[in-house]
Amino acid sequence: MFNEKLLKISLGFIALLIIIGFITINYMLKEDNAQPSYETTTVKRATNVSTDAKEVNLDTIYINIKSQKYKILKADIALVMKSKTSKKAIQGNMDSVRNAVLQYLNTMDANGLETVSGKDRLKEELSDMIESTFGYQVETIYIKNFILSP
Question: 20 to 30 A Cα–Cα from 66, which one of 1, 13, 39, 140?
Fold first, then answer.
C-alpha cells in the first residue's frame, strides 16, 4: 500500500515536471521577433591580407642561415612600394625578386637578427639590395612573422 502511494506520487511528480518543461520551452521560443539565444552571430576573423594598395607580400620564406646560434629562418615579409606602378612592376618580376631575397638571406651574416636593431638592419639591407638590383623604389619593409630556430 505504501509502495503504491509512493509510485503514484512519483509518477505525478514526473508528469508535472514534463508539463512545466513544455510550457517553459514554448514560452522561450515565442518571443516577439527576437533572435533565438542559440543562434550565433557572424565573427570577423583577422587575416594577413593588407589593405594597402602599394603593399606586395613575398611568400613565407624558410631558409638556412649563417649564424652561430641559429640554423633556420622563417619569415613573412611585405614590401611597401613608393608607387602603384612599382608594385605592378615588382609583381610581374616576383620570381626574380624572391630568388634574390633568398640568395641574399642565405649569404648574409645572420648574427644579431634576434634583436630589434638586427631586424632593422635586415630591412635596410633588403631595401638597398632590391633598389640596387632591380631599381624598384621600396618605401618600407614589414616583417610580419619572424622565427629563428636552432
Answer: 140
pLDDT, tens only, 75-116: 888 888 888 888 888 888 888 988 898 888 888 877 888 888
Would the pTM count as exceeding 0.70? no
Task: For residue 49, tell me if it sits in a domain.
Answer: no
The answer to whether the CB of 119 falls within 8 A of the CB of 140 is no
Nearest to 55 by CA among 114, 139, 117, 121: 139
30 and 99 housed in the same domain: no
Q: What is the DSSP letter of 47?
A: -
CA neighbours within 13 Å on the CB side: how many for 108? 21
The C-alpha cell 640568395 sits at: 103
Q: Is residue 43 part of a domain?
A: no
The span from the CA of 103 to the CA of 137, in Å, is 20
